[in-house]
Amino acid sequence: MSLVPGLRSPYAKVGRVVYFGRMLDKIRLHAAGTLPAADYAANLGKGFDLRCVTFLRVSYEELKARTLAGGDTDEQLLAWAHARGGARTDEECEIWNGFMMKRGWRDAGADVLAKRIRESHLEAQTVLTMFDYIDFDEGRDPVAAKAWLG
User: How many CA within 13 A on the CB side of residue 70?
Assistant: First the structure.
């Protein structure tokens, strides 16, 4: 894949939560017709999107509708999710972020990550996690940027 303008790294945080902003970007870009359908459409609301809304205890469809209604910033959408599903503690956010940023590294996702690395010919890159894979696959270098420190 290549870099999709307006689609941020999964490492980017909104408030205390990684990945949430990327999910919002995908919702908006898909609605605008600028998200490459072949690469992304089949997984909207699934995979990491589903994990994220499950963590926040909100419905993907409700979040999508709220996002597309416009008028709310990413931070306001996260505040809405916290109000709707219950606020997450700092510790819960730390656990969420740690889990997501390490997904694919020595866990049940390792085989899928290895397969994706081979399919995308990224063997020469330092891809340790699914977030690393997503960034490298889209043309960003999370290692050089130390994206996990953000």
Answer: 3
Q: Residue length, the chain?
A: 150
**Which sign does the torsion angle of CA 30, 12, 52, 21 carry?**
negative
CA 29 to chain centre: 14
Identity of the residue numbered 45? G
pLDDT value at 9 more than 80: yes
Write the DSSP string, 67-117: HHH----HHHHHHHHHHHH-PPPHHHHHHHHHHHHHTTSSSTTHHHHHHHH
Q: Global pTM?
A: 0.93
The pLDDT of residue 147: 72
Task: Provide the token pair at 32.
Answer: 């605008």
